[in-house]
Amino acid sequence: MTISPPSDRTTTRPLATVEQMRETIRRTAQLKGRQADAVSRQEVRALLGSGPYARDRLIEHLHLLNDAYRGLFERHLVALGQEMNIPMAEVYEVATFYHHFEVLRDDAKAPGLTVRVCDGLSCELAGAQDLLAKLPALLGTPDVRVITAPCVGRCEQAPVAVVHHHAVAHATPERVAAAVSAQHTQAVLPDAVDHEAYCADGGYALLTALAQGDLPSEQVLQAMEDSGLRGLGGAGFPAGRKWRIVREQAAPRLMAVNIDEGEPGTFKDRTYLERDPHRFLEGMLVAAQVVGITAIYIYLRDEYHGCRALLQQELAKLQANPPCVLPHIELRRGAGAYICGEESAMIESIEGKRGEPRMRPPYIAQVGLFGRPTLEHNFETLYWVRDIVQKGPAWFSGFGRHGRQGLRSFSVSGRVQQPGVKLAPAGITLQELVDEYCGGMLPGHTLYAYLPGGASGGILPAHMSHIPLDFDTLQPHGCFIGSAAVIVLSQHDRARDAALNMMRFFEHESCGQCTPCRVGTAKAAQLMQAPLWDHATLDDLNQVMTDASICGLGQAAPNPVRCVQTYFQHEVA
Q1: What is the mean pLDDT of the chain?
Q2: What is the pLDDT of residue 142?
């Protein structure tokens, strides 16, 4: 084989000019698909301000558009994607994931005033369905629409309607119509302890002592561990141990605070936040100081419009007159997704994505927000930090009944005379809670059943009202305390109806990521409407959801069903 020598003549190609290279970069960097028009881009920029726009603020920017135009027009989504350099498909999938966003075609008419009526169990017991039936005819205008909403976190005020951002407590058709006529659409700022009053009463002294080195971090951490305080969002992980685990991780470390209490029947975080926001903020900053946190993200559910305005106001005061060097703090707004109460789904949402739970491991204490070690806490857990450290761990653990230790904030609603947040000893029984803290049952009502832990905590009959309410005491009976949301039923109610209400809630709130939960909750809700339950099929569904769901929503959804099958067979057999 003869190999030809290389040619003396070589083919040369001219290099591209600088302008040609710039044009190539511009063309390849441009997002494909529909391009935004100049007017839409100008409207988006007017709301967002000057760029560049961080990817993790996508949901915040969607809120700005949704608030301004009462909907998300496709042309604005296209413009937003181009301004943020995010594909339209990604913007669209985030916008359509959250219930409080409404994507509209460009030729659609923007929605008028929206009235949301809560159809959660507590509101349903108080007449929400009757309210829903009467309001459309009474309001009588196409510019006002009436829709249902899952639990809005005001169960002690049931039934509740929300006129745009204004909550109407103990709603009647007449009261809602009056709010609409008077254009009462904005949230009312709660009458809380403000920054000046809090500081005058010794507020931030603990944080100052810690920051100046007068109080050792290890002493604070030891007090948290000795108190026995466990996470009060539902999981119940020991708070002090969590601090120590995250502190041992490599810096930078972040914190994510969960105030997305979407569990039906739960409203304790909102109640405490409306009363004393700085007690929570100081606890948060003490935790940040001990663990070595560089940035804090507070995730507040969108239904709490008044709380958001309050937090914005009080955070501004704190940052204007800080007791020490503060970490970076951002207040992030949820968008109506119960699943974002799950810690990893909340982190996904803070990062500007669909709120879908992550597979674990890794755990967020190691790989969390923006890939960094993250201390995640519920609002109420941080609310008690100041008292525990200043009064000593024995103060907190000194409370308790029936062999249990600590305090619990019970959100009580349903057929009791005095619903509300009841701060009571851990281990108190349901009967004691109703008799001593709630003024007993409503006239004409006797105790029939109760939910000890909200939608996912199961249902127990009246003859089991003497079980101590605390972590680990209810599991042998197929229930758990979770966030201590107690809903009380009377002889006028049926446990099967309560279980169906909860399963419909789970069906509505499933993120859809895993098939067992997405399909199982819908199928279970359908089967539960039958006069006689198909127990074999329900049992099969329950087992698959428990074993194969990614997160606690699907794993706990069968609990009310199983409780009805166990304790209320006469209702379904």
Answers
A1: 94
A2: 85
pTM of the predicted model, to two decimals? 0.93
Name the pairing type of β-strands 144-149 and 113-118: parallel
The residues with which 238 forms a beta bridge, in sequence order, are 230
- CA-CA distance, 82 to 58, in Å (whole number)? 12
Question: Which pLDDT score is estimated for 24?
Answer: 64
Asked if 339 and 248 touch (Cβ cutoff 8 Å), the reply is: no
DSSP labels, 154-213: -GGG-S-EEETTEEETT--HHHHHHHHHTT--SPPPP----HHHHHHTTTTHHHHHHHTT
The packing angle between helices 128-139 and 173-181, to 10°, is: 40
DSSP at 238: B
Closest residue by Cα to residue 471 from 422, 538, 400: 400
DSSP sequence for 362-399:
SPTTTS-GGGS-EEEEEHHHHHTHHHHHHH-HHHHHT-
For the cut 70, the answer to whether the pLDDT of residue 25 exceeds it is: no
Task: Note the pLDDT of residue 200.
Answer: 98
Residue 6 has pLDDT above 70, yes or no: no
Tokens, residue 486 = 């107690």
Report which of 285, 293, 289 is spatially closest to residue 249, judged by C-alpha positions.
293
Secondary structure in 3-state letters for 55-97: HHHHHHHHHHHHHHHCCEEHHHHHHHHHHHCCCHHHHHHHHCC
Q: What's the pLDDT band for 51 if we cut at 50, 70, 90?
A: confident
In the block, residue with structure tokens 């120590």: 244
Q: What pLDDT is recorded for position 235?
A: 79
228, 250, 246, 247: which is closest to 237 by C-alpha?
228
Mean pLDDT of 52-80: 97
Say if residues 388 and 396 touch (Cβ distance below 8 Å).
yes
Chain position carrying tokens 């698959």: 544
| Distance, CA of 345 to CA of 28 (rounded, Å) | 33
Which sign does the torsion angle of CA 191, 233, 551, 502 carry? negative
Summarised one tens digit per residue, pLDDT across range 142-183 is 899 999 999 999 999 999 999 999 999 999 999 999 999 999
Looking at residue 230, what DSSP letter applies? B
Find, among 545, 509, 493, the residue nearest to 124 by Cα.
493
Q: What is the pLDDT of residue 1?
A: 47
